[in-house]
Amino acid sequence: MLVTGSPVVGVLDGHRAIVTGGGSGIGAAVCRHLAAAGAAVAVLDRNGESASGVARESDGVAIVCDVANAAAVAAAVDEVVRRIGGVTDLINNAGMGRNKPLHEYSDKEWDVIVGVNLTGTFNCMRAVIPLMLEAGRGCIVNNASLNALRPLPGEAPYSAAKAAVVNLTMTAAVEYAPRIRVNCVSPGLIETPLTEMVTSNAEWRGAAERGTPMQRVGTADEVAALVTYLCTDAAAYITGQNIVIDGGASLPSLQADSLLRTIMTNMSRETSKEP
C-alpha cells in the first residue's frame, strides 16, 4: 500500500513495534507507516476485526487488548514477543473521550476515559520498558492531544488525562535516557472516525479550518509520518518532547478560541452516552 509521507523503505529494518489503538484512525496510519519503513508491527486494539484488517495491510500481527487492563497488557506483550521476537518501539495511541460539562460525568465515565488515556499508557510503558532496558535501546511515542495544552469545554477527564500523559512522557524520558527515548505528539483536529462529528459537519468544519493558520484539517498520515520519524535514528537526539501537530491552531488567536468553543459547545449538546 502506498503511504503518503512515509520514510525511506528499510529505515526501520529490525524494529519491532507495538501500536495500541491500531485498528483505526491515527493508529492504523501509524501501523502502515511503520511497516512501510521496514518495522514488524503488532496491532493492538479492543476491536479484533479492525486490528486484523490493519494487520493484513501492514503484514503484521493482530492482538485484542484493552490497555486499561494491566493483566491484559502484560499478556499481550508476552504474545508480541513470542510472535514478532521482541519490542523496540511502543506507540501508545489508544484513546477515547466524551463531551459534556464536568459535573455531569459519572464515576464510570471518568474511570473509563482516564483508564484508557492515562492508565493504559502507563500499563503499556511499564510492560515494555524492562524489555527495552534488557535490549539496551527503545523508543516510546505517546499520543497526547492539543487538549493537553489548550483544554476545550466539555472534555475535562480527557484533557486532564492527556495533560498527565505529557508529564508522564517527560518523567520517563529523564528516568530512562540514554537507553530509551520517550516523546509524545499532540495532534490538533485530525480527520479520523473519532472526529467525524466535526469534520462531516460543514459549518463546524469550516469554523475549525478558519481558526487554523493552515486553513484545513490534518490527516492521520501526517501524524503517522511524525511518529515514524521519532522512531528512526534521525531522531536519536530527541527525547522528553511534546511535539504539537495542529496546523498552527494552538497559536494565540481569540478568533480561533471562540470558534473552537462554539464547536465544542454544540457537540456537548449531542454527545452524552455512557461509555
Describe this protein's structure:
Helix content is 47%, strand content 15%. The chain has 275 residues and is an alpha/beta fold. The longest helix is centred in the middle third of the chain and has 29 residues. The chain is globular, with a radius of gyration of 18 Å.
Describe the structure in brief.
The protein is of the alpha/beta class and 275 residues long. It is 47% helix and 15% strand.
Radius of gyration: 18 Å
Class computed from helices, strands and strand pairing: alpha/beta
**Beta-strand content estimate:** 5-15%
Note the total helix count. Answer: 9
Main sheet overview: 7 strands, parallel
Quaternary organization? single chain
Name the shape in a single word.
Answer: globular
Task: Give the low-confidence spans.
Answer: none
Order of helices and strands: EHEHEHEHEHEEHHEHEH
Helix content: 40-55%
According to DSSP, the number of beta strands is 9
Question: Kindly state the mean pLDDT as a whole number?
Answer: 91
